[in-house]
Specification:
The structure holds 2 protein chains of 2 kinds.
Chain A lengths: L2 H12 L3 E7 L2 E6 L4 H10 L7 E9 L12 E9 L4 E9 L5 E3 L8 H12 L2 E3 L36
Parallel strand pairs in A: 2-5, 6-7
Antiparallel strand pairs in A: 1-2, 3-4, 4-5
Chain B lengths: L10 H10 L4 E5 L3 H9 L22 E5 L7 H10 L5 E5 L1 H5 L20 E3 L6 H16 L6
Parallel strand pairs in B: 1-2, 2-3, 3-4
Classes of the chains: A alpha/beta, B alpha/beta.
């Protein structure tokens, strides 16, 4: 299925919940509303024509210091989907405000989302509602803050770590 | 006894001489410096010339801890534990800038020098250090071992 047709199908089914779509050199992206994200992803996986069985990647971006987007929603959670049977791909984005960075978990849809979402929580402080094991993945438990946020000082020393420089 | 059939020494020097040529190292390899460590350990540079040819993969059988590569904060407790498991006498070599100071990883994940966790005897800078630097560091460590005064 061609990428433009995938976007058409999403727009036809979810209407206004698909906030924005674009494609860049064959990479098709749908920006969806936070409330609808769970349903959109479930549809992407279960629809016979889309059949995205694989969650290739789940990550996030902090746009707080991105030129031209400093005032918009701070975070974007990015899902990369791939269908083995149809050999097509889709990127789904969900925009989140700084004061309420929460989105529904994708673990019931794809088990691999478990560690992806733990990493995003660890690095960006974005919570995934309904996650079965919401612990940090890479940093240790005593770590304070979320190091991939743009306002995290690059050389901040943590309490457990030897003398400060 | 005839001439040349005996020699005199101090006990400290005899022990130091024996120890400096029987270095059993524990390679704690975490990153790219490991390649340079392997190059040094193989036949071309041949650390066996210095009596350091047999790495032990149990800390309980080793006397020199080679910390080779970047140490992250999550790895730090493991390194400390390995060090604690080694029996006395023991020495530590910081291999490469990451172990010496953190190197260019001035960030949230990396220990800024392993001497914030465990004592270090010899620092070998370089990213990674050339085998010649490693051998130089090894010889400095040998001097240090040989000069060590025993407590009886």
């Amino acid at each position: 299925m061609h990428g433009a047709a995938i976007l058409d199908e999403l727009r036809a089914r979810f209407g206004g919940a698909v906030l924005e779509t674009h494609d860049h050199r064959g990479d098709h992206t749908a920006v969806v509303d936070r409330e609808a994200a769970r349903d959109v992803l479930a549809f992407c996986r279960d629809s016979r024509t889309l059949a995205f069985e694989v969650l290739m990647d789940l990550t996030a971006v902090d746009y707080s210091k991105f030129p031209g987007r400093e005032d918009g929603p701070r975070f974007e959670v990015v899902y990369h989907l791939y269908s083995i049977v149809h050999n097509h791909r889709l990127r789904v984005k969900v925009r989140l405000d700084e004061d309420h960075p929460v989105v529904a978990t994708a673990v019931p849809l794809w088990l691999i989302a478990n560690w992806f979402e733990r990493e995003v929580w660890d690095m960006f402080g974005i919570r995934f509602d309904g996650h079965p094991d919401p612990r940090r993945l890479l940093m240790y438990e005593e770590f304070v803050g979320h190091p991939l946020r743009k306002d995290y000082p690059i050389n901040r020393r943590q309490p457990l770590i030897g003398p400060a420089h | 006894m005839g001439v040349g059939s005996f020699f005199t020494s101090k006990l400290d020097e005899a022990i130091g001489w024996a120890r400096k040529y029987s270095i059993f190292q524990y390679p704690f390899v975490t990153a790219c410096c490991g390649m340079e460590y392997m190059a040094t350990a193989c036949s071309h540079y041949d650390v066996d010339r210095f009596g350091a040819g047999l790495p032990r993969f149990s800390p309980r059988q080793a006397d020199v801890l080679f910390v080779v590569g970047t140490i992250s904060h999550k790895m730090a407790p493991v390194l400390k534990r390995i060090y604690d498991q080694m029996t006395e006498p023991k020495w530590v070599v910081a291999f490469g800038v990451c172990t010496c100071t953190g190197g260019f990883y001035d960030n949230y994940a990396t220990v800024q020098g392993i001497d914030t966790i465990i004592p270090v005897d010899v620092y070998i800078p370089g990213c990674p250090p050339r085998p010649e630097s490693v051998l130089d560091g090894l010889m400095k460590l040998q001097d240090k071992i040989a000069a060590q005064v025993q407590r009886y």
